[in-house]
Predict the structure of DUF4397 domain-containing protein.
Amino acid sequence: MLRFSKVILLAALVLLAACKKGEPVSEFSFASFTAELLALPGTANVDIYVGQTKVDSLTAGAVAGISSPLMLAAGQSSTISFKKAGTDDVLLDTVVKALAGEKLTLKLAYSPTLGIQSFMTGSDGNIPADSAVFFLFNQLPVELQADDVHVDGYLFKFNGTDYEDTGISWLNLEKNKLHSNQTKLAVTGEDGLPIQYIIKLKDKATGEFLVDAFGIDGLSPNFLPGERQIMTLTGMQARGRWKFLAESAAY
C-alpha cells in the first residue's frame, strides 16, 4: 500500500513540474478555428464538420467560432468539412494539423450564382484604406443585356467636369461568369471623399455602349474601401423599368 502511494505521489510531482514549466499535458492540448461564409450572391447555408461530427452551421456573412471556439486536437491531423446545410454533400474540406493554442482562420466562398466554391485567400499585403481590390461578375438580366450580345467593360473616372477613360478594361466580360482580371485602384481622394467611377459596357458587335431603360450608359460601382471584393453588375426595376445596378461583396 505504501509503495503504491509513493508511485501516485511521484506521478503527481512530475505532472506539477510539467505545468510549472509551461509544458501542456498532451491530452489536454487543443487548437481552435473560426470559419466565415462570405456573403456573395446566391450563397446558401452550410454545416461545419470536424471529422464526422457536426460542430456548427453558417449563414451568408456569418463567422462561427468567435464567441464559442471551434476546437481541434493539437498535434493531430483533423479534417474540417463544409457541407450543404442539411445534407451530406461536401462542398469543401481541408486537413489541418494545428499546434496547441493555435487559432486557424478559414474563409469559405460558396456561391452557385457566381460559380465559386473555394477557400479564399487574399493577395499578399494589406489593402490601403483608400483603395479597393475587386473582381467583376456580370449578372445583367436579359432586359439589360441580351444573351446574344457580348461586351467588353471599361472603367471611367470623373475629372470634375466629365468622365474620362482610365485605361482599365475587362475584355470579353461574359455573362454569369467571374472575370479573371483582378483590379486594384484608389477609391478615396486626398480630400477624403469617394472618387466617382462608372463602368461602361461596349457591345463588341456594334461598338456602342449599353444603356438602360432610363438612358444611362454606365454603372456606378459602390466600392468598399480597404477591402477585397466582388463587384456584381446587375439590374433592378424602378417604376416598371430596368436600370443598371452595381453591388459589392467583401471577401
Remarks:
- Residues 1-27 have pLDDT under 50 and may be disordered.
- The longest strand covers residues 228-238.
